[in-house]
Amino acid sequence: MRIEDYALIGDMQSAALVGRDGSIDWLCLPRFDSPACFAALLGNDRNGHWWLGPTGRRPADRRRYRPDTLILESEWDTPTGTVRVIDFMPPRDVNPDVVRIVEGVSGTVEMSTQLRVRFDYGRIVPWMRRNGGHLQAVGGPDSAWLHSPIPLRGGDYAHTATFEVKAGDRLPFVFTWHPSHEPMPPQIECEDQLVQTEVMWRGWVGACSYQGPDRWRDAVIRSLITLKALTYAPTGGIVAAPTTSLPEDIGGVRNWDYRYCWLRDATMTLDALIGSGYLEEAAAWRAWLLRAIAGRPQDLQIMYGVAGERRLPELELGWLDGYERSRPVRIGNQAVDQLQLDVYGEVMSSLYLARTSGLGPDERAWSIQRKLLDYVEEHWDEPDEGLWEVRGPRRHFVHSKVMCWVALDRAVKYVERFDRTGPADRWRAARDKMHAEICDKGYDPHRNTFTQSYGSHELDAALLLIPMLGFLPIDDPRVTGTVAAIEKELMADGFVLRYPVAEDNDVDGLPGGEGAFLACSFWLVEVMAMQGRKEEAAELFDRLLALRNDVGLLAEEYDPRYDRLVGNFPQAFSHVPLIHAARALSKLM
After folding, report:
1. Residue 283 CB-density burial (10 A; 0-12 exposed, 13-18 middle, 19+ buried)
2. Partners of 501 in the beta sheet?
3. What is the pTM of this model?
4. Exposed (0-12), middle (13-18) or buried (19+): which is 540, by Cβ within 10 Å?
5. How many angstroms separate the CA atoms of 202 and 59, rounded?
6. What is the mean pLDDT of residues 379-398?
7. Over 70: is that where the pLDDT of 331 sits?
8. Strands annotated E in 95-183
9. CA–CA dist 490, 496 (Å, integer)
10. Nearest-angstrom CA–CA distance, 537 and 556
């Protein structure tokens, strides 16, 4: 299946991808970054999956989320009747549950199911046994139970069943994980959990402050729900995506693990949530941040585990063939050791926004921020790997320098607005020095554009952020020239690339190409809106919305060569700028 053929369900601690054919092909338990027990997404069915649908296994005729929820409904029309499968993960009490309710809509439909549990990313075939009428899988530290209204038969290292569903029937299936050393967990009441899950999601969406045009409301709300689903509730950490190794280049090596909390992605997510009225998430994330980065400022990482873990070693799983043979499959992320100076500006900007939006003061937060600012002052003029985590040589990336400017700019504003103690005069002087250098070394006067790095000729879509960050006004000729250059040189089939990717360009140090990074195109929408280009911005925004799959989800990139979504899915870094772009456009309507 294509990446866009999947839908997301989750309980704000983990998530599953459900295919159009009714197969759950990806599920990590008990956390987003735990080993997968269903890993067919990165291999095949024998690496673990749970299929449930009409006999014959074909795509659903239609599917949708119940309005303002993360409850998925898939429907099949067959010659003998219509059947619906309701998939969801109820907010967790102790153990994670995946609930699948088969509902007969009309006539009689023959249904089938196949369960293959494979712990440790498809590597461990568990010991299966029946216990009290239920099916149990045990493998090392993991155990899972299937509570089924019908018996499943074992064979070929799988368990299967065929059964009939008539109009009005409702048959609940529950898959529950727990540590193998613990006793069997209590079985949940599926119908009650369905009601409670729907009430929870609708109540959360009801607090949204979006006031834009109705034509974009569904896209904004679905993006907000997706961002909420990527939040790890126990700690407040926010993962970039629930998947690993979905390729940016089909068949290539640009395959990364995104099941961690990037400071950059999380701060951008917080901006979107705060702007939509969700301060509770901002408070939880600030608490997570302070725990995660506690210590010396020079030890700040660009990403952490969902509970603040620092060691995220990158490994390759040789037994998995990869999505459409895109190898290697990676877990962990080597970029954790990179120097990315822009994250300091992201953190300062997000914390400043949270305070200006009504989040109360925190003395410990300000103390840590001051330590981070000391580091920025000392190291801002060093080369780094930058926003895009290049695996080539370090460079003086213009975006990184601009974000260091942002860090000091927000620090000055903190002192001025909230009467905080700090060397504001020194920060102002350092900020102004940075601004002058960036405009001197990062700008090409002959082409009238900022460049990707000092002295380079390449462009970078991150330069679109310059006016949004307040570094220069939107009508500054240098901004106008940069936007025009990006539209001329970095667009492919009407969408924006991150930067030039070619054999003679060693910026990222990787072979192969990639699709159009969706966040960059949404940034262009926002800039167009700031420039007053209402019709152009709305047209591009609508074309971007058309790239969403049938249930409103976006991956990291869109590859116009194959007319497909590529990269990890769903991607917070795509849904966040969608929300910002909708907000910017709404001001023109």
Report:
1. middle
2. none
3. 0.95
4. buried
5. 28
6. 92
7. yes
8. 97-116, 127-131, 134-139, 142-147, 153-155, 158-166, 170-179
9. 6
10. 21
